[in-house]
Amino acid sequence: MERCHERESIFPRALSAQGNLETLARSATMNANGEAAKAVPELLSPQNARLLLDSTEAFLFDCDGVIWKGDKLIDGVSETLDLLRSKGKKLVFVTNNSSKSRRQYAEKFNSLGIAVSEDEIFSSSFAAAMFLKVNDFPQEKKVYVIGGEGILEELQLAGFTGLGGPEDGKKTVELKSNCFFEHDKSVGAVVVGIDPYINYYKLQYGTLCIRENPGCLFIATNLDAVGHMTDLQEWPGAGCMVGAISSSTEKKPMVVGKPSTFMMDFLLQKYHINTSKMCMVGDRLDTDILFGQNAGCKTLLVLSGVTTQAILQDPSNKIQPDYYTSKLSDFLRIL
Amino acid sequence: MLSCSSHSSRATLSAFSHFLPTTSPYFNFSSLSPKTFSPTPLNFGWRAATAPKPRMASTFPARASAQPLQNADELIDSVETFIFDCDGVIWKGDSLIDGVPETLDMLRSRGKRLVFVTNNSTKSRKQYGKKFETLGLSVSEEEIFASSFAAAAYLKSINFPKDKKVYVIGEDGILKELELAGFEYLGGPEDGGKKIELKPGFLMEHDENVGAVVVGFDRYFNYYKIQYGTLCIRENPGCLFIATNRDAVTHLTDAQEWAGGGSMVGALAGSTQREPLVVGKPSTFMMDYLANKFGILKSQICMVGDRLDTDILFGQNGGCKTLLVLSGVTSLSMLQSPNNSIQPDFYTSKISDFLSLKAATV
What we know:
heterodimer, A: alpha/beta, Rossmann fold, 2 domains, seven-stranded parallel beta sheet, elongated, B: alpha/beta, five-stranded parallel beta sheet, 33% helix
């Protein structure tokens, strides 16, 4: 698919069985004549929900806008997940929010009364560390982080040395002729994710590393413009911080989070399930649903997050999930 | 592609509709996904940031390579006005570049009008006037056009209603110019001290009367300001998104490069997935403004600058002569690199060459 190849330059492909994933992706979106299927998303109903359930072995959930909004659980989520587990379905959580590590996310789930283990969670913080690992990033090089604790923790777990992170949110900059802004010349990668502690110090540090350290990588955990960091409203996402660094360095980042299928490879290592037997459930078309489609999964859009029905049905929208429904707990009502 | 995302802002342009929003020619995100493009909120901001090679320059035939300046007199006699960039042309940080005072005096003595156009929005024209004075140059406020002034002038030119407010992500210069132009502003350096707490039940309010968000270089940049600006742009109907400039890096001190206004603008473009209206170079807004104000023909102007993608492109987009000086960020090898497609008419090492070259031809 032309689209996949063009994306290659900023979205790393899932590494194993690349061909298989592509074939699956193609078959998921083409009809018998080999033309791109012009599907219209089906509203989840008792009939199609049963079919969906029977043909799905693993449900992949986005978190913000699907499971919770900020620190508040969305109604009925706990019961729905219990129901799906009771029917023998595997539950996997795939989130672009890089502020926490997998371990920290497991803690969050537990504090909200949902039993989820670390290895059922695939966060973009984890993806960033894995990207460096699979690309043999030298351990003597350092990683400068514009983002949350989660990224630093995952880097450390993978054996890398991280600099920056939330700490640098307290640093200020002096713009005087005799003040020189130093940066560590051994930084070999800058990882950028959502950062509510963004400031000029970090922008300058990251910019100097990318512009002046030869071969320095520029990695983005994701490009989401805004997200539900709290229950009441949307807040600027990683797309904002990445936009800032991209502008000052005049470079494009490598994006490891959705819609890149990079994380799918790690998922497949744990769950040996054909992606056609997976259903991606998300609230965002250009990350969650696209991720699902690219990987050859079924896709279900929930309207409990950033996407409204109007946006879904707007003629300018070209991303059509297989199904849509208002929220996850509709499964309880329907089944 | 550019036009899709700027529909709503285009509708408000009146007299200056021809200058249109520009983005840096360095962005080439052509390989992005998704291929489908929609204004908001589905496309990544990047898609909208994809710029073809400079819009107006691409309508001209491929330019010949820049010529080293040999006959300074010929150039001087052929124009009536010289527009100078400041950083890297007149000064570097707080130090004057050699021979500048004598050169400016010579040009004035030959009846040339001198204008100074800078993308640096941290100071107002008045504050720049003081800087010139401190360096021993006699330049009046009216000869200075900083992008801070440009933002206020732009709002004036479109009759931005006085009952609407302007949210500023930027420094003092912008605030001063808005005040002088009679506009009410919010934000600025003060908001650099504001913190947010992302916890349940917390709602950040924003003034629904904000009709424009102006973004420029901001050393006090933080998440509060980004969210405030984002809310205004996304939720206040018809709210304008104006950028003073999109410079990637800038020589705030003479010792090194610093992340420029382009990064603050990039942040807002990323969160709003909208393209801003750019009032600073290479947009021709400031050139149109001063040509109009002083009643001069573009063909009678020579733009002198040290940066290809802002100064020289500005001059070319405006249809005037262009002279690149190598006393700032651009080196000869950068000019002559195969990756560079922006060719000024002439290049020389620094503006005082006007004096030495002139002497050589006598």
